[in-house]
Amino acid sequence: MRAEIISVGTELLLGQVVDTNAVYLSSLLPKFGIDLYYRITVGDNSSRLTEALKTALSRSDLVFTIGGLGPTQDDLTKETVAQLVGDEMVLDEEIAAKLRGFFAARGVEMPPSNLKQAMVPRRGRTFPNPLGTAPGVAFETDDGKAVILLPGPPREFTAMVDQCVVPYLQEKFGQTAGVIRSRVLRLTGIGESSVEDAIKHLLSSTNPTVAPLASPGEVRLRITAKAVDAAQAEAMIDEMDSKLASILGHYVFGRDDETLERVVVESLIARKLTLAVAESCTGGLIANRITDVPGCSATFLAGVVAYSNDAKKKLLGVSEELLAAHGAVSEPVAKAMAEGIKKVTGADIGLSTTGIAGPTGATETKPVGLVFIGISTANGTLAERHQFAGSRADVKLRASQAALDMVRMSLMTG
Predict the structure, then answer these.
(1) Backbone dihedral angles phi then psi of residue 349, each to the nearest 5 degrees
(2) Where do runs of H (alpha helix) occur along 180-308?
(3) How many domains does the chain have?
(4) Are residue 144 and residue 241 in the same domain, yes or no?
(5) DSSP 3-state assignment of 259?
(6) Where does a domain end: 200, 224, 255?
(7) Any idea what the Cα angle at residue 24 is, between residues 157 and 266, rounded to 5°?
(8) What SS3 string covers 276-326?
(9) Residues 230, 265: one domain?
(10) Residue 184's domain spans which residues?
(11) Which of 115, 85, 98, 254 is nearest to 186 (CA)?
(12) Residue 71's domain is classified under what CATH number?
């Protein structure tokens, strides 16, 4: 079952509105075994919408339109679809009565233009709008394809999808289309190209499929399986998950919504260890990420942003001699910062960052993106040198990711 979503609205093309509706619907369709192949956006223009609908119906079995069901002249979706499939628009008296009641309940007279919303394709099956005035419509073409028209306002759209479209899909496809399930493996400390080289023999798999996606400091692998039922799909995913994990090893830190900070916090709590962080170039980003995790107070003692050399000396006990000899951005200073925050707070683990986030501040020997990350534990203190690329924000994010992963790896190796 191939599906397509057509989002209608010039405001979407102009970037004035983010299309959250299409995202919501896209995440819903796999539960019914429906493959979404295309998502397109067109403006409030009948000829271009007609062209988009013709293309969609030529290649898809199920077409959704979102938007263009309002009472104004530029709301053209119903009329355009009806004309395209050779249907006629008729007045639905039940919808008209509900519209009048909607306005009467608010003590106002219904504008004549709103009666347009009670005009529906004759062959259509209407969906009530629990939060607005624009009903949805579903109908089948002569060749058995389905077209579903949905309102654009997000609250109305979501309510109609949940209350009307889901039962419709269950009725029409629930027993025949199977199910689609996905799982995301999350990796850090390795680049996308290295991941692809390691698993290239698995990327050609068609069911389940494996699709890589890179973001700053992280690579994600989405495993997607289609099967007759959820249990079979999950079993297929489990098998592929096992293959990928055996190849990629410690680079895999979590799955689906497991963030690196959550994994680190939960690992610290499980081991009854505490953590404190001294940040320079990351400016508190590590502490912010940690404190986004519920329950972190059981393990996170403190975060200090020691940006200046004076702060490093006063707050962390970094010596003037060390700073003078090596500079703030150096391995010895990163180690001293980690030891200092560990000592000051009494934490089991001290973590530190010092670097040059850019775009200024670089020297011939210390370029933009150079970051040293230090960690101090009961087993000793060490620091790692990293060279990150990208904007100032990218460098900070990548450094925070590498620092959290340093804690994770320290916990894994004991």
Answers:
(1) -130, 130
(2) 192-199, 230-248, 260-270, 285-291
(3) 3
(4) no
(5) coil
(6) 255
(7) 135
(8) EEEECCCCCHHHHHHHCCCCHHHCEEEEEECCCHHHHHHHHCCCHHHHHHH
(9) no
(10) 179-255
(11) 254
(12) 3.40.980.10
CATH of the domain at 309: 3.90.950.20
Same domain, 236 and 131: no
Candidates 304, 301, 305, 312; CA nearest to 349 is 301
Asked whether the predicted pLDDT for residue 57 surpasses 90, the reply is: yes
Q: How far apart are CA 233 and CA 224, in angstroms?
A: 8
Residue 277 has pLDDT above 80, yes or no: yes
Question: Does one domain contain both 96 and 167?
Answer: yes
Residue the block writes with tokens 């995790």: 293
pLDDT of res. 73:
80
Taking residues 233-262, what's their average pLDDT? 98
Nearest partner of 367 among 386, 352, 351, judged by Cα: 386
pTM: 0.77
Please indicate, yes or no, whether residues 132 and 15 belong to a single structural domain of this protein.
yes
Same domain, 154 and 67: yes
Phi then psi for residue 169, to 5 deg, are: -65, -40
Residues 264 and 353 in one domain: yes
Q: Both 48 and 73 in a single domain?
A: yes
Q: Residue 405: phi, psi to the nearest 5? A: -70, -30
Distance between CA atoms of residues 152 and 70, nearest Å: 9
Q: Given the structure tokens 């009670």, which residue do they identify?
A: 118
75-102 in b/e burial notation, b at 16+ Cβ within 10 A? bbbbbbbbbbbebeeeebeebbebbeeb
Q: Are strands 252-255 and 179-187 parallel, antiparallel or unpaired?
A: antiparallel
| Confidence band for 177, pLDDT divided at 50, 70 and 90 | low
- Structure tokens that stand for 90 in this block: 């008729």
- Indicate the residue among 240, 255, 270 that finishes a domain: 255
pLDDT-derived band at 174, boundaries 50, 70, 90: low
